[in-house]
Amino acid sequence: MIRIDEKIIKAVFPGFFGIIGIILILWWLFYNPTESFTVSVPGMDNGPQRAIITDDTVIIGEYAQFYSGVPADIPGSWPRFRGSDFDNIYKEQISLIDNWDERGPDILWSIELGEGHAAPAVLDGIVYILDYDEQRKSDSLRAFSLADGKEIWRRWYKVLIKRNHGRSRTIPAVTEKYVITIGPRGHVMAVESKTGAFLWGIDVEKDFNSEIPRWYTGQCPLIDGSTAVIATCGKALIIGVDLSTGEIIWQTPNVHNWKMSHSSIMPITFKGKKMYIYSAIGGMVGISAESKDAGTILWETTLWNNNVIAPSPIFFDDGRIYATAGYGGGSMMLKLSRIQGEYNIESIYKRNPKQGFSSEQQTPILFQGHLFGILPKDAGVNRNQFICFDPEGRIVWTSGKTNQFGLGPYILADGKFFILSDDGVLTIIKASTEAYIGLGKTKVLDGEDAWGPIALVNGLMLLRDSKKLVCIDVRKK
To answer: Which residue has the higher pLDDT, 379 or 108?
Structure first.
C-alpha cells in the first residue's frame, strides 16, 4: 500500500501544485489589496492632529435652560483671560494665606464638568465657564453663583466634538452687558451677561474658511470697549465685531495666509499708539486698535514662528516683546521701535528650551522686570520646574527637581505665586527675584491634567482639573 500511495503522490502532486501556482498568479494580477481598506481619519490615533471637522449644521445659541441659582453678592471680578489687566496678577487688597493647617483647603463648592481645560471668568458674583456636554453633544456656556456653585442658567448649541486631549479650553470675556465665548470648533457666541439671552454668533470656520488648530480652539476672546476682537486667520487675519449687533466693523487682511494658533490676542500701548499683538502660525503681527484705523497692520514679522503656539506675547513698556512656545519652540525676545512714524521689529535673542526659559502652555508672568513660569518637558534637567529669569534670558533660580509642576497654571497674588500642578497640588511660594522660597502646599483636586488657568475674586480661588471645578477660600483668617 505504501508503494501504491507513493506512485499516486508522484503522479498527482506536480499537477496539483501547478494548478495552485496558476491560481496564485491570476490572484496576484487581478486582486486589489486596498479594496476593503478603511480610509485613515485624523484623530483615531489620539495623536496631535488637526481638529476633526464634520458637515453638521450648527445653530449657535439655539438652546437655553434656567436653574435655581442666583448671582452672589460678592465684589470683585476676573473678567477674562489673565484678568482685568491681562497680566495674571490679582490686585485686590485682601490678605491671602501663606500655608494650610492640618485640615487642608477650605473647599466651598465643586461642580462636575465635561472633559476639558476651559477656565472661568467672574463678574458681579457670577462664574462663567465654557463646558462641553458629551451626552447632549453640545458646547455650553454655563453660569454659576460664586457663593455656592449653584447653576443660574445655561446657553448651548449642538456640535460634534470628538475627544482630543479634552474639548473646551478657552475663557469667556465678560462685561456688565455681554459675554463672548469661542467654542472648540471656532463658534463665537455673544449673550447677555445677566440673563444668558442669545445675541449673535459667528462660525469662524465656515464664514472665514479658517482652519481650526491642533487640539481645537485655544484662543480666548477679547472685548475692547464696544468691540469683540477675534483672530479668524482665514479670509481675514483678525476681525472687530460690534458687541451689540454682531456686525463686523473691520477686518485685517490675511495676506500671508497665516493660520490660527492657540495663543490669544493681547492689547498694548506703545509710544501712545494702542494696538493688538497676535502670534499666529506664520508670524507675529501688530495691528491698530484705534477707531480711525482699526485693523490696519502696523508691523509684522516672521522672526517668531512655530507650528504650535499656546502662550500669548508679553509686552514690556520699553518695547520689548517676549514670545515663547513648546514642542521645541523655545523663546525669543523681540524689540519694537518706531522711527519717524515707521515701526520696526528685531530679535534681541533666541533660546532653545535647554538654553533658557520657555513655556509650553501657560503664559508667563512679568513681575519686577523678571519673568516667571514653568519650563516645558523638553527643557532638559530643569524640565517642569517653576523658574525666575531676568530680561537678558538668564535663569535666576529654579524650584528644583523635587518641585515639578507639569503644565499647570499659576497666578501672582498678595506677594505670592499660587501654582497648581497637573495632579491637583496647589503650592504657594514667595514672589521673589532672589530665590525659590516655598511656603506651603496642599492637595485640592484628585483628577488629572489640571491645566485650566486660575481665577481669583475676593479671596475665592477657582481651580479645575480635566473634569471638576472647585472654589476654595484662600483668605487669611
So the answer is: 108
